[in-house]
Amino acid sequence: MDIQTIKKAIESKKAYNHLVNWALNKNCSISVFVDGKPEIEKSKDFEKIKKYIECADETEILIFDENEKRLGWALIIYYNDDRETVCDYSANKFMQEWEIEQDKFYEELNKVIKQKGNIQ
Fold this sequence. Notes:
This protein has helices at about 5-10, 15-25, 45-55, 95-115, and strands at about 30-35, 35-45, 60-65, 70-75, 85-90. It is an alpha+beta fold. The chain has one domain (about 5-115). It has a 5-stranded antiparallel beta sheet with strand order 2-1-3-4-5, with helices on one face. The two termini are about 15 Å apart. The model has no long low-confidence stretch (mean pLDDT about 90).
């Protein structure tokens, strides 16, 4: 594994980062809300989205496709354990696909950790 891959894997241990990256890779845009008010709307900029998610203990994100159709919603609790940062989300096909991908990611990550030692 190269350094960039390791860095991305460590960053993706936080479920919200994994969700944001996964959605952006599907050409989606994301809005971030704090206390019901939009902080950033329909962005495709990972760093800006991450900044606004991390600006509060609790945020909500909405995910939109390229036609601005809403695909999903997630509640982010920033200080939860890595995998629990996405603590609630839409019960629909789009978010179920993400959940399956996240499970695969964690399985792969756990294999690497067992082979190479703990990644912090």
